[in-house]
Amino acid sequence: MRPGPCLLLLLLLSTSAAARDGSSGRALQLRTLVAPSRPGEVPPLELRASAGLTTLVQFDSSLQAGAVELTEQGGLVQLARLGDGSLVVALTRNLAPGEQVPFTVALEPGAEPLRFVVVTRREAVDLRVQVVRARHSDGEDAAEHVARELLAGPETRPMLALPQAARKRDTWDARAQVQSVVWMGPRLFAIVAVWNQKRGTAPWRLVQARLRTTLADGVLLEWPARLLPGPVRVRRQLHVLTSPLPEGASGLEVALDAEDSPGSFQPLPPATMDESP
C-alpha cells in the first residue's frame, strides 16, 4: 500500500492544519500504546484522527507488504505504509460520534493481528502514535503472589480507601468499580469489584484494565495492567490489577474494559498516598 497523490498532499498540509487545530483548543497528542498480548479478546486500539490532519503510526518492527487490512471500502480512511514501515492514517471527513472505522495490522506472519479503530474525538487528535509490544518486567512472580494474597484475604482487609468520588463504570445492568489502591514502591495494586444489578446473572465480564500516564517528555503512555481474577461470589467478583509505574511518570489513570467496549480513563490516587501495610 503506497501513498497516493491525495495522501501526499495531506502530509504536506498537515503541519499548518495542526497549528490551526491546536489554536481551537483540541489537544494534539503524542501517544505510546503497549499492544495487548491477546488482541482478539479485548477492545481494539483507538486512533483519534481528524480530517485535514494525518496521524503517523509507528511500530517496533517494520510492516511488510499486505500487513494492513482495511475492511471499510467507503473511502473514509486512507492508509499508507511508508518506506520505514510506519503507517499514515488520514480521514476524508470527520467521523460522527460513535462512528468507527476498523482495520488490522499483522506484525508477524502467523501471529494474531492487532485490531485498530479510527475515531474522531472533539477533545483530542493523535499526531503520532507508537505501538510497542509488552516487555517482561522484573518482579512479576512476586507481584502475582501479592495479588493472590489480596484476593484470598477477607474483604474487610485494611486498604487505602479511594476518595468519595471513587471511579467506576456503570452499564444498565452491571457495575465495575476500583475499590482500593495500594502502592508498594513504584508498583501499583488495585482491587476492582465487578457485579451485576440483576439477580441470577453472572458478574459483568472485565477483560482488561488499561493504565495511562504522562511521561516526562509529555508523551501519553497507555498499557494493559496485569489482571488477576478472583472467584465469583453470587453476582460479584473481585479482581486485582497490578503494574509498575514508569520512572518520571505523573497523573495515573485507569480504564476498565468489557470485551466489546473500552472504558473511559479515570484518575487514581497518586503514589505519594503510599500507606502500604
Automatic annotation (TrEMBL):
Signal peptide: 1-19
InterPro entries: Mxa_paralog_2268
Pfam short name (any one): DUF2381
Region (Disordered): 256-277
Signal in keyword set: yes
Record keywords, A-Z: Signal
Name this protein carries in UniProt: DUF2381 family protein
Organism: Archangium lansingense
